[in-house]
Amino acid sequence: DDAANITEDSILLYLDNSGVSVDTVYLHDADNIIGSNDTVYATLSDNKGVKEAEFFVDAITGNGQGVAMTLDNPGSTVVNAKGVLNIDNLKYLADGRHKLYVHGKDSTGIWGPYSKLEFIVDREAPQIENVEVVYPDGKNVVRDGDKVKIRAHIVDYTSGLDSLWLDGTNINGNNNMGMYDDGTHGDDVAGDNIYTKEVTINTNGGNGDIGFDIHAMDMVPNERVVSSSVSVDNTPPGALSISVLDSDNIYRNGEEIHLKVTTDASGYKVSADFSNIDSGYLTGSEDVQDNGDGTYDVSYRITLANTMPDGGYYAIVRAEDDAANITEDSILLYLDNS
Prior knowledge:
The protein has one helix at about 170, and strands spanning about 20-25, 35, 40-45, 50-55, 65-70, 70, 80-85, 95-105, 115-120, 125-135, 145-155, 160-170, 175-180, 195-200, 210-220, 225-230, 240-245, 250, 255-260, 270-275, 285-290, 295-300, 310-320, 325-335. It starts with 20 loop residues before the first strand and ends with a strand. It is mostly beta strands. Strands 2-9-8-4-5 form a 5-stranded mixed beta sheet, with no helix packed on it.
């Protein structure tokens, strides 16, 4: 007053030029890699109370034009917000990396700064291409006990591979075999995205094209399965019938032996071992003609320098198929040089 007596009190006022603060932002999928709709969560605070929150994806338009978020306690100084990140509705959202922006508005109508979260959209499963079965020794069919290499080009261009495996239940009883791109385990070159598994075939006597599956999963996880097969033959050629085409089965040194072999099919590798009757026999020196009807003509000339004594000897005849299954039989021949 005029005498300088003073009475005082106070009132609390707030200065707020920054708007709502976004303290945390995260997705329900903790690794921020999604292949379908997800939920955006955020914690926001402001000393005048938080009234609204919204988010944008990749492009920010204007305040109040984003995807609205639900607040657990509107008007409180600290609120939890959530909203649906609907990637199906956001058709422009291609697979790949994206940015999510969250901000909030306080009770005075001031919108605060944005907080950013990066995430990856991956709707596509890994690619599995060029599946190949590599047979041993140039074969195109195997039998139980043989080894094959199964390989494929496998890659995921967006989120990366998480796991891959070979289900070989039908070809060897193992449904979870790892495949490798490390230059070992039968793999030729490390890091070329060609994954390989060396497999020992065990079909319990199966025949035909026996199937297997290759599974690959990315980080979402999206899964792709590709099927192929191994050609297996565990059935040996049919029984052999061997007959002499000459006037009798008695021979001398320098004379040619002629046999006819009959079995169930053409195309076999037929051989005859004459080492019992001829000391000079060399493996494969006999001539074999496939007649295309399941019969084979075999001819062999006994060497003049043969030192075997006169007597009866068995010639062993074998038929071998592409999988190295063998059927064999023998025929009695006589040597008479005296």
